[in-house]
Amino acid sequence: MEIKLRPLQTHADFEACVQLQKSTWGETFSECVPPAILMIGQKIGGVCAGAFNAKDEMVGFVFGLTGIKDDRLANWSHMLAVRNDLRGQGLGMKLKLYQRELLLLKGVEIIYWTYDPLVAKNAHLNLNKLGATIQEYVQDMYSEDTGSDLHRGLGMDRFIVKWSISEKRVEQAISGKLERVDDSFKGIPSVNTESGDNKLNPVEKKLPEVEAVRVEIPLNIETIQQKDLQLAGKWRANTRRAFTWYLAKGYKIEGFYREKTTNRCFYVLRL
Q1: Whose CA is closest to 225, among 154, 156, 122, 123?
Q2: Class of 4-174 in CATH
Q3: Low-confidence ranges of the chain (pLDDT < 50)
């Protein structure tokens, strides 16, 4: 498929971006970024860029604001979306790389954004393919009710990730040369699911203080959310407790991987 990446320029571009936000998060989504902010953000060093097909229809976009964090220029990448029928074809990766290219030209070398720790496909993209690192777990970072079915029943817990876009490690990840975690981590205890099964442990179960642990997430939280909202909520409560407890103890998230034989997904945390 022929795709062109470019910054948004016209009123029609900005309106198309709003429509893509609504088609992604729902017509009742209350957190849509309006056209004026999409436009103004670019005027102060931010990025608002789209992916367009051969008919010049917007099929994806990325938006972020540039400012100062920890005394350094940084971009906060607030939104990325791809049209539903084109997901899973690498457009998200292309948009992130284009965002990186534009920001390096502006002298910005750090990008931050958030994602839901329960979404396995985003964990894989952010940590394995882009080489970003997790900085913080924030409970209920955004409004509890955004009007979007994507957030229904799960709350808005988020990881904050840092993407140091000029570092060698990121170059290695982008080129596919970053050493990847794999099934060799099977021996590390999974602290939130029963050994040998993916049944959730009781939330009050004591968490072990060992050198390394695995925190499991479902392969597809969206499917669980649609079929069994109570179970989806248990996944949130269970992983929230594990992440907040271990990160407060000084553990670092070393990586994310999916077992080839079982399709089970794990974060690896190490002290």
Answers
A1: 154
A2: alpha beta
A3: none
